[in-house]
Design a protein that fits this description.
The chain is of the alpha+beta class. The chain has a domain of 158 residues: Beta Barrel (Elongation Factor Tu (Ef-tu), domain 3), CATH 2.40.30. The protein has 5 helices and 7 strands; from the N terminus they run E-E-E-H-E-H-H-E-E-E-H-H. The relative contact order is 0.15.
């Protein structure tokens, strides 16, 4: 007979807001349900252009930096799964926590306004805290939200949202996006090193699977086919 106590609890995915200077978590947003699908797209940063000049041919196998990676997924929030907890505001707090990932704080806005009133010639854009997305222990990486669309589908008698579906898009921040000494750059390098370790764990194939002799140099073998 299976005992429920022996069944491990699923690891949740979510977002951690980190102080970039101290490295301490400022807020942890745990997704109520792990998304069923996760779409990832990687675009190589090739050094060569699309032209046909000699310079482009020399750069064909060169990379300017890490691939530009984006993640998209759909998250669900449902207050009916939390009926044992009083929720007079519905899921407003959960939605607000996610929305503040793309808003500056009122304090930051007031500070920028005061600087403008004092005649500051150039006001730097407001810097947001470091945002990390975690999907298991092997995927903890710095990101910037690029899309947050919310579809609210149920409300209580006070029009508080009770259920919502969120489409979330993120860009992975690499060493090409962050200053060299930034904590996020170090976290990205750790993420990339994890990929390297995982790639090294794959079992290597054999050239025979392609119909190629394993002991010959591929360039010479291919050249003989055109003689």
């Amino acid at each position: 007979m299976t005992r429920y106590a022996d069944i491990p609890k699923p690891i949740r995915s979510g977002i951690v807001i980190v102080d970039p200077e101290l490295g301490t978590p400022q807020r942890v947003i745990v997704l109520q349900f792990n998304p069923d699908t996760l779409e990832r797209s990687l675009a190589p940063q090739s050094a060569g252009g699309e032209g046909e000049g000699e310079g482009d041919r020399n750069e064909a196998l060169r990379l300017k930096g890490p691939a530009e990676e984006t993640w998209t997924f759909t998250a669900e929030i449902d207050s009916t799964d939390q009926l044992e907890v009083a929720a007079p505001d519905g899921i407003h707090p959960e939605l607000a926590a996610l929305e503040m990932l793309v808003h500056p704080t009122t304090a930051q806005l007031r500070e920028a306004t005061q600087a403008a009133k004092k005649g500051t010639i150039e006001i730097s854009p407001i810097e947001m805290p470091l945002t990390l997305f975690t999907w298991g222990s092997k995927r903890v990486l710095p990101v910037r939200l690029t899309e947050l669309s919310i579809s609210e589908t149920a409300f209580d008698v006070n029009l508080n949202p009770m259920r919502a579906s969120l489409n979330i898009g993120m860009k992975v921040l690499s060493v090409s996006d962050l200053p060299p000494e930034h904590r996020g750059a170090d976290l990205y390098l750790a993420h990339l090193a994890q990929k390297e370790r995982l790639a090294g764990m794959t079992s290597g194939g054999r050239l025979g699977a392609f119909g190629l002799g394993g002991g010959r140099v591929l360039g010479r073998q291919a050249g003989r086919q055109y003689r």
